[in-house]
Specification:
Layout lengths: L1 H28 L4 H8 L5 H10 L6 H13 L14 H36 L4 H15 L2 H15 L18 H38 L3 H8 L4 H13 L1 H9 L3 H4 L2 H6 L5 H10 L3 H29 L7
Helix pairs in contact: 1-15, 5-6, 5-8, 5-15, 6-8, 7-8, 8-10, 9-10, 11-15, 14-15
Length: 324
């Protein structure tokens, strides 16, 4: 087991290097440069000034030289400074936005798991019943709706028509006057809609996965044996079948880590939430290469870490797995 994970860790290094190279090429081969955006904002910038900007950002150098300059900083965990007007370090900007994104996505994942697992188990236990058909219709209906369209509908309903929930930001203007409990409640009200939309649009995949996994497990011989021994249905489903049916869910949990960043672009942009998704959208629009690279590399790192975590957890919960 130890040697397997050691080899796995070694293979992560060339994988991560390949990701950085491909990401760098894709970003820099896209049309336009950061200096083009600066000129759009200030048409009075002369050609000489534009050339100085290109030299300052090393954009006048060949692509492989630019990548090498970036990689030398990355090797010491320095993502450089942003190309925006404030020229702040990329890591500082990411550190400011990361907590709110993790909070939203962690809450969404908790809601998804709390709803999807019982829903999938009950659908499998009542296969072909009206509950199975209606739950399938509900999860696929919410899955098929575009997230931005659903967000606008719920904003109009709960924010404008009913006035129950705020539709933008993460806190009220008079937030500082609230008590500790009031501040927590204010946060919860602002994050309710983003968490709800993120959960609804992602519910179908996990619930259907649990349902299918349960249907495969209940066909096993040991389930037939449990029924022959006189175990009641609830004991067979929740004691014997559910435990083994949830093993593949461990893999999904590990692979969900990249979604902590990547899945937030739509919600944070629509609800004006200052998180990683909004920061990524702004950096792409401004062609802020260091910031885009920093966010993408962190996403890639989470993906690789998720894969490792999934393999490790799977080996822990299933003693049949022997990597030696």
């Amino acid at each position: 087991m130890t040697s397997y994970f050691a080899r796995k860790l070694v293979t992560l290094v060339p994988t991560l290097l390949g990701i950085t190279l491909i990401t760098f090429l894709v970003i820099h081969l896209a049309p336009g440069e950061p200096t083009d955006r600066m000129i759009e904002l200030n048409p009075k910038i002369s050609a000489q000034s534009k050339q100085k900007l290109r030299e300052m950002y090393h954009l006048d150098k060949p692509l492989h030289v630019q990548y090498w300059l970036w990689f030398k900083r990355f090797a010491v965990l320095d993502f450089g400074n942003s190309f925006s007007a404030d020229s702040r370090p990329v890591l500082d900007k990411i550190k400011e936005r990361l907590p709110i994104t993790i909070l939203i996505n962690a809450a969404s994942m908790a809601v998804i798991f709390i709803i999807a697992i019982p829903l999938g188990v009950m659908s499998a236990a009542r296969r072909g019943s009206s509950f199975d058909r209606w739950s399938s219709f509900f999860v696929f209906f919410t899955f098929s709706m575009p997230a931005f369209w659903l967000a606008l509908l719920l904003m109009m309903l709960f924010g404008i028509q009913l006035g129950w929930l705020p539709v933008s930001g993460i806190r009220s203007l008079d937030y500082q006057t609230f008590s500790a409990l009031g501040r927590a409640w204010d946060y919860a009200r602002h994050l309710a809609l983003p968490v709800l939309i993120s959960s609804l649009t992602s519910l179908a995949y996990l619930s259907r996965f649990v349902r299918q996994s349960m249907l495969e497990v209940v066909r096993m011989d040991y389930i037939t044996t449990a029924k022959a021994k006189g175990c009641d249905e609830n004991s067979v489903i929740y004691r014997h079948a559910l435990r083994n049916a949830l093993l593949p869910i461990v893999t999904i949990l590990g692979l969900s880590l990249p979604g902590l960043i990547g899945g937030s672009v739509i919600f944070e942009t629509i609800f004006a939430i200052p998180g990683m998704g909004q920061l990524f959208y702004e950096s792409v629009m401004m062609r802020d290469y260091p910031l885009v690279m920093g966010i993408l590399i962190i996403g890639a790192g989470l993906t690789l870490a998720g894969n490792m975590l999934a393999d490790f957890c799977y080996a822990l919960v299933d003693p049949r797995i022997r990597y030696e």
